Amino acid sequence: DIQMTQSPSSLSASVGDRVTITCQASQDISNYLNWYQQKPGKAPKLLIYDASNLETGVPSRFSGSGSGTDFTFTISSLQPEDIATYYCQQYDNLPFTFGQGTKLEIK
Amino acid sequence: EVQLVESGGGLVQPGGSLRLSCAASGFTFSSYWMSWVRQAPGKGLEWVANIKQDGSEKYYVDSVKGRFTISRDNAKNSLYLQMNSLRAEDTAVYYCARDRYSGCYDYWGQGTLVTVSS
Fold this sequence. Notes:
The structure holds two protein chains of two kinds.
Chain A: E1 4-7, E2 10-13, E3 19-25, E4 33-38, E5 45-49, E6 53-54, E7 62-67, E8 70-75, E9 84-90, E10 97-98, E11 102-106
Chain B: E1 3-7, E2 10-12, E3 18-25, E4 33-39, E5 45-51, E6 58-60, E7 68-73, E8 78-83, E9 92-101, E10 104-108, E11 112-116
């Protein structure tokens, strides 16, 4: 199985900060990577697909980059409503696997 | 509007069975792969199973193989997960998700909680 390692596991930042989360795959997954946002008690929401494509309706402050084994998710200017847990997920090989999540809090 | 509504969760004893359902609306159900993804309390997300548009291909995470069966009824716009021989470690919120393409989940249901406990 492909292991997805996210860092950090938790992050505290101020409104307006630039926030970066990294995700590393245990083997080359090309660009078969998605990013999801999950708020407490809610279902996950797709934000970025194919490593760098912004899902329709998602604010442009969210972005993704990378290919192969190393990926980055960025919020350019943190907003209060961005408080959530973020997950990367590979879909290159079954079983499709998620990172362990990054819990983002407001400082 | 795309909607996915799960049902069928609840409390079950170890070794018991449960059948989850997911009612889909707002899109052509028969055109999409569908998946079940679960989340244990306070834990991360785990893909459980998926099924091709016509039901001809089904895949499972190793931990549920031989115990869980995914199925669909395109005439009823419904997805199912039959769960047998349930274990404490199967306790989780189970989400139904639409695959934009296999592995990319663009719509999710609200989830249904399955608790396996004596």
